[in-house]
Amino acid sequence: MRQGLPLAPGWGLKLGMRHAALCLALILIAGPALAAADKMQRSLEALEPATEMMEVCDIAVSAKISAETSYSQVDRVVADALKEPVADGDIFTATGGAFRDHGHWYGLRFICTLAPDHLSTQSLRYAVGNEIPESRWEEFGLWR
Question: Would you indicate the residue range of the signal peptide (predicted)?
Answer without folding.
Answer: 1-35
